[in-house]
Write a structure and sequence with these properties.
The chain is mainly alpha-helical. About 70% of the residues lie in helices and about 0% in strands. The chain has 20 helices and two strands. A two-stranded antiparallel ribbon has the order 1-2. β1 and β2 form a beta hairpin.
């Protein structure tokens, strides 16, 4: 401690002796201050670059793999509905209804569409209350408890015997899973500077592509099951739930912020906080601040990002069903994240460029001829995977420009509220209504996957 700091400390002590009531007033407001103030000096200090690189490397190795696995489980959990349908869930739970009074007979998959959308109704209901819990309490403990509950709900899917029961299960599954995307977005914004966030957001979001491939391999393995007392789709949910429960147990070790990061030394924690002060993005604070909530509501940038996110409903559900799509999503999410971290002000340009293949892919599917193993619609469907980097860029764009723990939480929730609104609109727009064999899509679940 230098002479100036010692002098300031003595002045504060003397002030406390003369005016103890001021200390009482200060303590009543201390909870409103960022906990980082307890370990760093009042004014910014220079950071040793070698130490900063070491701190950044430790943060990456300690947090990114956990988030990659966690968000991968979220997407695998949503994607296995498609695998379960392939393995007989549609028939067992009466998710499709054939109307033989028409010529030719028509098949309605409205129940399946609503089963998909009920997940997003649940996520919509859970986003703000669970985000509030993350903001107000220890992030590792909240994540651990909620993720374990999520895993148990996923395992209970194996006990569902009707489409009504599946609707209820999907709602509560979406409710508890809503904590993951907003939680991870806040973790990244609470450990990394603005320049570093795009790359790190892309790292954990790339699990959507990686787990597409992993999930496809697991489903292929389940397809080999011939006997047993359960249906193959029930085994899928039991595995997904068990993996999620294990991940929930690991979540308890996630530190509350850079101030309490167990994988950093006391010196490194100071550096971790100073990095954030330099970037003016702030450190996690558990006090809910009304001023920041008001800023979030009035911030035009957040509304624009949420509007873009609302368009993410048509493809993200389907990009998880094919191996080529998984590769496109995985590779280009990482590539766009890397480019965003290296080239200033390139976010919007990359967003526009990645939208173009999506438009082309939709046009190829719409205008091409459908027949057995038709290459054009398959190619079109594959390049739709560019929507993965579009969403990743939207997330990083929205969070990198927000400071303040409360405002970050509100912004993260707003972004995924818009995402859920887009997804729940699908049954309303008519997806899955009476379709005959001559309609521009495969007529059965088996045809859809061959």
């Amino acid at each position: 401690m230098n002479m100036e700091e010692q002098h300031q400390k003595e002045e504060k002590l003397a002030s406390h002796r003369l005016h103890p009531d001021r200390d009482d007033q200060s303590s009543s407001r201390s909870f409103e201050k960022d906990e980082a103030a307890a370990i760093v000096p009042e004014y910014a200090v220079n950071i040793d670059k070698a130490v900063e690189r070491r701190v950044l490397r430790k943060i990456d190795l300690s947090l990114i793999p956990l988030m990659w696995i966690g968000y991968g489980l979220v997407y695998y959990d949503k994607a296995i509905l498609g695998g379960a349908v392939l393995f007989g869930m549609t028939k067992d739970l009466k998710l499709s209804v054939v109307d033989r009074s028409t010529t030719p007979p028509t098949t309605s998959t409205q129940r399946l569409s609503w089963a998909t959308s009920m997940f997003y109704f649940g996520m919509l209901a859970g986003l703000y209350p669970l985000t509030f819990l993350l903001q107000r309490f220890n992030i590792g403990r909240v994540l651990g408890v909620v993720v374990i509950v999520w895993g148990l709900i996923a395992m209970l899917t194996a006990t569902v015997t009707s489409w009504q029961g599946l609707f209820a299960q999907r709602f509560f599954l979406g409710f508890v899973e809503s904590i993951i995307p907003t939680g991870f977005m806040c973790i990244v914004s609470g450990y990394y500077t603005q320049e570093e966030q795009a790359l790190r957001q892309s790292w954990w979001f790339s699990s959507t592509g990686g787990w597409t491939i992993i999930g496809g391999a697991l489903n292929y393995g389940f397809a080999q099951i011939e006997g047993g007392s359960l249906k193959r789709w029930q085994y899928i949910y039991l595995l997904a739930g068990a993996l999620t429960v294990l991940f929930g147990c690991v979540c308890f070790v996630i530190p509350n912020s850079a101030v309490s990061a167990w994988f950093l030394s006391s010196e490194e924690r100071v550096v971790a906080v100073e990095r954030l002060r330099k970037g003016q993005t702030g450190v996690r604070c558990q006090m809910l601040k009304k001023s920041q909530l008001r800023e979030a509501v009035l911030d035009v940038k957040i509304w624009l990002v949420a509007f873009m996110m609302a368009g993410a409903y048509t493809t993200l559900e389907s990009i998880l069903l094919q191996f080529p799509l998984g590769g496109v999503v995985f590779i280009f999410i990482l590539l766009t994240g890397y480019l965003s971290s290296r080239i200033p002000n390139i976010h919007i340009i990359l967003l526009i460029l990645c939208c173009l293949p999506v438009i082309a892919g939709c046009a190829m599917i719409w205008r091409s001829s459908w027949y057995h193993r038709a290459p054009t619609p398959v190619a079109g469907y594959t390049i739709i995977g560019f929507f993965g980097p579009v969403v990743s860029l939207i997330i990083s764009l929205g969070m990198a420009n927000v400071a303040g723990a409360t405002k970050k939480s509100a912004a993260a929730a707003a972004i995924f509220v818009a995402y859920c609104v887009g997804n729940v609109s699908r049954p309303v727009t008519g997806s899955g209504r009476g379709l005959s064999d001559t309609d521009h899509r495969p007529s059965t679940d088996q045809d859809a996957y061959t």
